[in-house]
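re: ur question from earlier - yeah i can do the single chain one, its not a big deal. heres the input i used so u can compare w yours
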Amino acid sequence: MLRKLSLTALAAALVASGAAFAQEDHGEEGESHSAAGDHSAYIENYSFSFEGPFGSYDEDQLLRGLQVYTEVCSACHGLRYVPIRTLSDEGGPNMPEDQVRAYIEQNGLEVWDPALRDYRPATPNDNFPMSSLANAPDLSLMAKARVGGADYIASLLTHYTGEEMEQAGSIYYENETYGGYLAMQPPLSDGYVEFQDGSPNDLHHAAQDVAAFLMWAAEPHMMARKAMGFTAVLMLGLLSVLLYLTNKRIWAPIKARVKDQTPAE
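and the output i got, formated as tokens:
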């Protein structure tokens, strides 16, 4: 019985460790892969700090991504499922509470209040505003909704071909990552956003920063889950060793008696 328990615990440890360490193998930055069934034709592999079992969000990168979202993306897209107060969470942007309130005031964030039947100034306890355009998808869970996650978002922003198509009086823009034409024109370009910390603001860096921010928006508790998984692997490993040693100690006298009783050939 103990032997079976020991083997079961060991198998569970191996499975848990495999799940914890089997993160997406993004390979070297610049490689590409296909994402069949998600419109995607080209997804570039970027190097993000949160990749791998021991990765974590880069606080400075999240703040830059928030700046890109605020100055560019928020004109059309919302984050309706992300509480504004989470900007001060550890493991995330980690903004002081007074800076969160200043962010709300400086950007004039407003939310719809059903009780007032009107818009009112947002508070840290409110969620980010909804998308301002009917055809602009909400970005709260976009990093989880697309194959490739943050790589998909960064690639989408950087792989417009420059080709345009007019249809029904509207202009559409060809995008390699989407694998077709988009109604959204290229939102970013080199130097479009001036980062407060003086970081590189070329197209690829800006796209990577906002992709990391949207990954955090969709997975704010990723670091806690990684820590929990690592702890579970250690505990299961320790349990399997203890069960193995217990099994050896219990069966050792019995095996010795059986050996002594076995007649010599």
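The mean pLDDT is 84. not sure if urs matches, ping me
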